[in-house]
Specification:
homodimer; alpha/beta; seven-stranded mixed sheet; four-stranded antiparallel sheet; 14% strand
Chain lengths: 377, 377
Amino acid sequence: LDSGHAYPAILPDLTAEAERVLTTYRSQALQYGPKQGIPELREWITSYSRTDGVSTSADRVLVTNGAKQALELVCRLLLDEGDSVVMTSPTYFTAIPIFRSFGARFIEVGQDEQGIDVDQIASIFAELQREGRPLPKFIYDVPEFHNPTGLTTSLSRRQSLVDLAAKWGVYIVEDSPYRRIRFEGSSIAPLKAIDPEDYVFHVGTFSKLIAPGIRVGWVSSSAEMIARLVQLKADSGSSPLTQRIVHEFCAAGKLNAHTERVVATYRTHRDRIVSALRRELPEISMTVPSGGYYIWLRLPSGIDGDELAKQGAQEGVSVLPGSKFYAAADIEHPKNFIRVAYTHATPDEIDEGVRRLASAFHAVESPPREQHAQPVP
Amino acid sequence: LDSGHAYPAILPDLTAEAERVLTTYRSQALQYGPKQGIPELREWITSYSRTDGVSTSADRVLVTNGAKQALELVCRLLLDEGDSVVMTSPTYFTAIPIFRSFGARFIEVGQDEQGIDVDQIASIFAELQREGRPLPKFIYDVPEFHNPTGLTTSLSRRQSLVDLAAKWGVYIVEDSPYRRIRFEGSSIAPLKAIDPEDYVFHVGTFSKLIAPGIRVGWVSSSAEMIARLVQLKADSGSSPLTQRIVHEFCAAGKLNAHTERVVATYRTHRDRIVSALRRELPEISMTVPSGGYYIWLRLPSGIDGDELAKQGAQEGVSVLPGSKFYAAADIEHPKNFIRVAYTHATPDEIDEGVRRLASAFHAVESPPREQHAQPVP
């Protein structure tokens, strides 16, 4: 229950797409492609973004090797050693070492059911200004089905966030891998859709829509910023082979049907893990996510997430301790959280995993006494 | 005649490999893969390297998105702002902006028929030491069929280079994309094969062996350095889909036969362009390369490569001016060179391209007078 992997049974059949690409488009797919990404895919991403209210164009989209390369390139563009970035506490743990590798310092802010705490950011900015210190270079957030908390930012909070960015001239990095994995409720405009002044870098990916192994993502921003990111992408462009496979799949209209299957499957998984958790572990509390991959579990205050994860591993269930999701090293963080993922395991494995987690929980709650009272052999 | 693209007709048929990977190995190929690269491919690269006398192992190989990502990661590992690197003058032009983006300063050294000028490097190092200044972080070279000069470093020069690196504790980045594209003569041990102290980062790629669009390359070094490079590779690993396609192709024994076809084809192209150049442009001189993709043409001293390239473009032939291949901005470089590539064009296009190049040459040599003597309308 630890990973953001796809459910194996739902990985799509891409053989027809691959065959077509490797025959009809062989000489394009196997040569160097354009550094910015193949135009057909950038056009398709543009029209896909339009269904979300994002008005972009092919010259304002850069295709990347998954979302992580997009994050890395944005860091290369915006960060110098010692610059700071704003992020929620907790946040996506893979982003932390990427930002850190560019010498970033972290400013953590809170998050509630409405999303990232914009008022807190505003008062931090005001204080930095009073002290004559530099503002952060960007605000990083996962506004939909946040990793790890599962929370989704409300429209009014989004509006406040974009307004704040424009007022202070600070960029936003909107990391949006789970946007279409929504189980109920209606979708909310992406930050990029309500961003007339182009302060938002919108990062998308086909990892959660089609398959992680395809390693195709994108970033959309202003034409000027994209041109600078293209310069920084020194790898001769992402593979035109994988890009064309993605494009064939999408252009054939298969993505929508596939997304529906993914959503239906993961909704079942989410329901299954929520029932199992309520049944086996009534001691823990959670906000049930309406989409995405993860649930953030609050343990009773005496229980340490690291210990529970360790004990879980012994009982054969893998979960991530909450401590992995905090960026700032010099701040005391709550210890009583873990993250569970429900996408990769089968429903039966979910039940069994939660049973084992409960068993680990009870072992950590009241440690067994055997080691103190071992019978003399 | 400008690009390092593959000859379209020689791109292999990968449909069988793709189909097998997307069916039999679907759940591995479409999930996240190991960050270091799939073990099967790293094992295969290990045995392939062994045929070159390189004794490595799967834990000392990192799979990358082509050779350029390998160069980028090595820079992230070794370079800080203001560090210097040694390279030949001229050198591979795509490496220049990669190194520069890490704040590198360039120390250019000469090159002759034996390869990079190791004596010159030794005296530069000695002088830096006398002055108490820091040594360069690495020496970058393309020892086989150098881009752009086509020269290949002799074994004794290689030995001197590796000895120098070990003596001074300076790394070598051995960029080796063309190694197997040898038309005649026997191959020479890679630097990595004569490097007992592990100062060499060996960079390889399937771009020239199979297809550029597949974007799979690798770097081999010590286990410790590879572990650090894996940490720096923040993109969740290269696509397991493309890696598995490569592995299927190689493991089925198709690579050797394919390489033979590639070599035979490019030998024909090389012969064709050499004949055409001798016929059409006896004024220029060159060293005929015994492998690789490129010929470096020395123009008579009055002829400017930039002007010739510009005039060529007008006549419908594209070549790269020599000026693109010099790293140091503050040094005067010879202007009378251009690089021609013979892989991408058909043999007939090669003939036609050289004819047009000759026509451009004669126009630059003795510019037409029409613009000074236009008839009054």
